[in-house]
Write a structure and sequence with these properties.
The protein is mainly alpha-helical. The protein is built from three helices and no strands. The longest helix is centred in the middle third of the chain and has 34 residues, at about 10-40.
Length: about 70
């Protein structure tokens, strides 16, 4: 059986890094949504927007209802 000493600094560092990664992922997704909205407003086909952003076709179409 392994005995490890609990280290708060290490635990906080790990949690900080996890939070940072989650924030980056959310930011990238929000950026793709903004890009998709802008592309829809310019009349770019949904399929092309999907290829560029990686968002789902239905999600992109739902964005179009708010334009």
């Amino acid at each position: 059986m392994l005995m490890n000493e609990w280290n708060w600094d290490d635990a906080l560092d790990v949690r900080y890094e996890e939070g940072r990664e989650e924030g980056l992922e959310r930011g990238l997704e929000q950026g793709m949504v903004i890009t998709a909205r802008n592309a829809l407003a310019k009349g770019i086909p949904v399929e092309t927007i999907q290829e560029i952003t990686g968002l789902g076709i239905d999600a992109i179409r739902n964005l179009g209802s708010g334009v």
